[in-house]
């Protein structure tokens, strides 16, 4: 009799236990955003907990990484993550931690002589031959005019400095970040030693050292977050009404640099983009004027 009761209870649980609503669980995951004041560690832990409730184990890390892209509060961090190729979950978290660290004590500078830090091999040097009145010459270092030069330069710098924790480099601009002065100075020493070993020089006029608010890649990084550089905002405010397609393109270029800080920027600038098309005659009307005013 006891055996029969036990078998019946198993059958009851099989048929009447609450079933998981997979669609609802996925909705909770894909709509999860970082809360105000929530640390990245807490946010990732919460995402991992939500991810275990639906059946995508082989895709879990990729989904969490993508959700971090979309769910973090800081638009500056989003932009930094989107610049990375083949970015995994752990790398994404580490980049966020480094940039968060930059808001405590930071130093920035930029590389002096830029592309000329990159030597060319013989084949590449021959390809960079140019004519003058005095004969033909060739570049021994990477010239500025080559289309692929920025990409080559960035990859080389990333290889040289990317392995130092607390260091980020974007083309010419390098930032060193630490939670406190001692850590900041230790990381700075590593970066300087690495630069010295390969004869890379920094521009002393662009040095910002041991600061809690730093200007980096046209943005202001501080404890309060990432904000636009006021100089860029003033430049847009000071622009007169465009009189040609060229001037509209110049305006849109400046606005695009600040786009992550402008809500609905695509919608706001749509009337301006319409009048710079090749087959459209330039005509500054009420819609363009309203768009121009709204941008400012």
From TrEMBL:
Stretches assigned to the Reverse transcriptase domain = 104-221
Question: Which SUPFAM superfamilies does this one have?
Answer: DNA/RNA polymerases
What Gene Ontology molecular function terms does this protein carry? Answer: RNA-directed DNA polymerase activity
Organism equals: Nephila pilipes
Q: What is its EC number?
A: 2.7.7.49
Q: Which PANTHER family match?
A: INTEGRASE CATALYTIC DOMAIN-CONTAINING PROTEIN (PTHR37984:SF7), PROTEIN CBG26694 (PTHR37984)
Top EC class per UniProt? transferase
Source species, domain of life: Eukaryota
What CDD domains is this protein classified in?
RT_LTR
InterPro entries xrefs: DNA/RNA_pol_sf, Retrovirus_Pol_polyprotein, Rev_trsase/Diguanyl_cyclase, RT_dom
Protein name according to UniProt = RNA-directed DNA polymerase
């Amino acid at each position: 009799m006891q055996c029969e009761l036990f078998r019946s209870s198993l059958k009851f649980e099989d048929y009447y236990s609450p079933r998981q609503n997979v669609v609802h669980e996925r909705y909770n995951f894909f709509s999860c955003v970082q809360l105000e004041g929530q640390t990245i560690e807490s946010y990732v832990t919460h995402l991992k907990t939500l991810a275990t409730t639906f059946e995508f184990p082989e895709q879990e890390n990729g989904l969490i990484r993508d959700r971090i892209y979309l769910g973090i509060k800081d638009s500056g961090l989003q932009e930094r993550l989107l610049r990375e190729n083949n970015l995994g979950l752990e790398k994404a978290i580490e980049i966020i931690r480094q940039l968060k660290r930059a808001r405590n004590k930071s130093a920035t500078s930029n590389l002096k002589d830029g592309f000329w830090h990159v030597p060319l091999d013989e084949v590449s040097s021959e390809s960079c031959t140019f004519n003058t009145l005095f004969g033909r010459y060739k570049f021994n270092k990477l010239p500025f005019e080559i289309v692929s030069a920025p990409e080559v330069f960035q990859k080389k710098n990333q290889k040289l400095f990317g392995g130092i924790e607390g260091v980020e480099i974007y083309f010419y601009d390098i930032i060193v970040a630490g939670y406190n002065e001692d850590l900041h100075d230790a990381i700075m020493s590593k970066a300087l030693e690495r630069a010295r070993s390969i004869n890379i020089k920094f521009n002393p006029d662009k040095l910002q050292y041991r600061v809690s608010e730093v200007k980096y890649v046209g943005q202001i990084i501080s404890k309060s977050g990432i904000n636009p550089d006021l100089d860029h905002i003033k430049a847009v405010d000071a622009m007169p009404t465009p009189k040609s397609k060229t001037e509209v393109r110049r305006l849109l270029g400046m606005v695009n640099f600040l786009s992550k800080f402008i809500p609905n920027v695509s919608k706001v600038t749509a009337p301006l983009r319409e009048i710079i098309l090749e087959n459209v005659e330039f005509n500054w009307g009420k819609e363009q004027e309203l768009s121009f005013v709204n941008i400012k």
